[in-house]
Amino acid sequence: MGKGRTIYVDVNAPKDGNGGKESPFKRINEAAQVAQPGDEVIVAPGVYREYVNPKNAGEPDARIVYRSSEPLGAVITGGEEVKNWVKYKGNTWTVRVDNGVFGNYNPYIMRVEGDWYFAPIVRHTGAVFLDKLMMYETASLDECLKGKPDEYAWNAEESKYKWYTEQEGNETVIYANFQGKDPNKEHVEISVRRNCFMPDKIGVGYITVSGFEINKAATTWAPPAAYQDGMIGPHWSKGWIIEDCEIWGSRCCGISLGKYLDPENDMYFFRKHVKSPTQMERDAVCRGQYHGWLKERVGSHIVRRCEVHHCEQTGIVGRMGGVFSTIEDCHIHHICNSSQLGGAETAGIKLHAGIDVTIRRNHIHNCIIGVWLDWEAQGARISQNLMHDNMRPDGVESGPGAMFNSDIFIEVGHGPTLIDNNLLMSKQSITIPSEGIAAVHNLVLGGFGLINSGVDSVINGQREPRYTPYHIRHRTEVAGFMTILHGDDRIYNNIFIQTYPNTEDKVPSDNDFPLAGTACFDIFPTYEEWFKPFDMENNPDMRALGEAHFGHLPVWVSGNAYFSGANICKHETDKFEDKKHKVKAEIVEKNGKYSLKTNVYQYMTDFYDGIITSDILGKAFEPEQRFENPDGSAITFDSDYNGEHRGLRTIPGPFADEESSKKTLW
Q1: Which CATH superfamily includes the segment(s) 80-191?
Q2: DSSP string, 196-210
Q3: Residue closest to 471 by CA, chosen among 518, 523, 416
């Protein structure tokens, strides 16, 4: 198909036009109602206070492109400015907003709530912004007036800026403590619209959104068995590209790659209570197949070179709709830092069913969890990422309903899930109540834990296993369900440096486990130990295998380097251990650039590994799928964090050599 039209939009045009260069539309949504496959919508700089609801899909060879004419010059916002504040008492001001402004969605009535939401305090989907600061909602006017710091906030000073809301007649009344500032002289906005750029129907695929700033939407809580809201997202379609955007200030989620609305399974547990939320997630997977959850129809999105920050549930969320997607070269930071919201769906990136998803070359920091892949991370790969400070600051306790912290959390999946060539520098680096994980060539400073916890429940004195699906290889169709047996992990060629003290005597099954190393894998058998009961020549009684079929799976641990007291798996023989020196590794930031400062290469001498390949890693047990590329081709791990080539003398860790480790990381 040939090139389509160019449609122009300029909010600062003297009057509304017809989309021509000399007579542009004033609103992006006007262009979104007429754009056809192959068209490009060019948006001039300015603030666009609107909801963009694309009407038409593009096609694989004729995308519809929405582009800011200047990088980040066009701003799509869910916020509206508020200037008519009246002094109320002390540092607190008040304003009244006619509810007609909100249409059929008033974010100051709508609560943040739903499945897997644990915070006990009422919060609304709306928010008040002082410049770029999302102020802190209070449950009472008295709390707002006092303006005291929140003990659970990651930034105590910011948390002094409070707001409170109530309804009077047909008006929303907002009180806000601006800590001595005059809001009529400052830039103050409130969230009004639920979304910024998201089709309200499914199947609007092959759209590119490039170069926009997107902010301040009053999004709703996005659990897995529900419609998943975001400021921007494809809404159950295929082939979107979101690139070079700055996305910030969502009450809940920034980008949603997730689930469609299914009224029969929409926050079922929250509304009806009688079925467990885990069961409803299983239902969501099976019902998804009925609703067109196929590789040919859903997923294969690209999110690249975006900065996603200061959202209070997730930076990027997705349930099933993000399959076969790539998230690359993004800067994701300061997610869920206010501790205003709490629940099991909070992270920089939180994906359910991340089948064949690639997460690479991102910088993820200051998030409650960096990357959380929950259920069905089959074929997912987390590679070449820089992750640090994904943990509460010292002295800050976990808020009501808040999750623990980790760089990477893989939950109740069967693999194969690959973690390779990353710098994982938070207090807990890898958390895997899961199986079928391969960790290859990472630098790990924090804990490797939560190996056998958080999966099953004990009810009425008996174990209630948590069965989750696995899939036809590189497809969405369900191949089977199985509980998590644990193990089936491969830990090769990593560097472990014990960095954080274990001041609370935590063990690998605890939250926020801080001990680096592989001793947590001692509970698993070697392959030979595991396979022995299945030798049918010596043990031909099928009934005797019942216990073995539900035992731990084997692990493979080899080629790792351990420093500063990092613990070592009892199964590992081919390893490097330095007991003499205090080895450190830390991130140094200068002028916005990040680099690694370490002395590890002074002491890791004359120890070399072999190159790891898909053949060495083998197949994850339950899906019987290799650790391989999404197209089924083999992986050879001969490229490092920077893409540098590993030669014959391969060393542990994410860098091919010391020189590569000195390059700018981000």
Answers
A1: Golgi alpha-mannosidase II (2.60.40.1180)
A2: SB--SSS---SEEEE
A3: 416
What are the tens digits of pLDDT across the range 422-434? 999 999 999 999 9
- Sign of the torsion formed by the C-alpha atoms of 438, 649, 363 and 75: negative
3-class secondary-structure state, position 545: helix
Q: Which amino acid makes up residue 321?
A: G
Query: For residue range 561-602, what is the model confidence (pLDDT) as tens digits?
Result: 999 999 999 999 999 999 999 999 999 999 999 999 999 999
Separation CA 48–CA 380 (nearest Å): 36
**Under a CB-based contact definition with an 8 Å cutoff, are residues 448 and 410 in contact?**
no
Contact partners, residue 120, CB within 8 Å, separation at least 6:
400, 401
* Bridge partners of residue 613, in order along the sequence: 636
Q: What is the pTM of this model?
A: 0.97
Question: Residue 571 carries which DSSP code?
Answer: T
| 193 Cβ neighbours under 8 A, 6+ residues apart | 50, 51, 78, 105, 217, 218
Collect all residues with Cβ–Cβ distance below 8 Å to 468 and sequence separation of at least 6.
Answer: 282, 375, 376, 412, 413, 414, 481, 482, 483, 484
3-state class (DSSP) for residue 548: helix
Q: Which two tokens stand for residue 105?
A: 């969605």
* Cα(556)–Cα(215) distance, integer angstroms: 45
Cβ atoms within 10 Å, residue 299: 29
- Tell me the sheet residues that pair with 66: 41, 209
Report how far apart, in Å, the C-alpha atoms of 289 and of each of 263, 297, 298, 323, 505 are. 15, 11, 11, 13, 45
Task: Give me the pLDDT at residue 453, please.
Answer: 62
Q: Residue 491 and residue 559: Cα distance in Å, rounded?
A: 8
Close Cβ partners of 130 (under 8 Å, ≥ 6 residues apart): 161, 178, 181, 183, 186, 187, 188
**If you ran DSSP here, which 8-state letter would residue 529 be given?**
H
68-79: burial string, b at 16+ Cβ within 10 Å, e else: beeeeebbbbbb
Return the closest-CA partner of residue 46 out of 15, 8, 12.
12
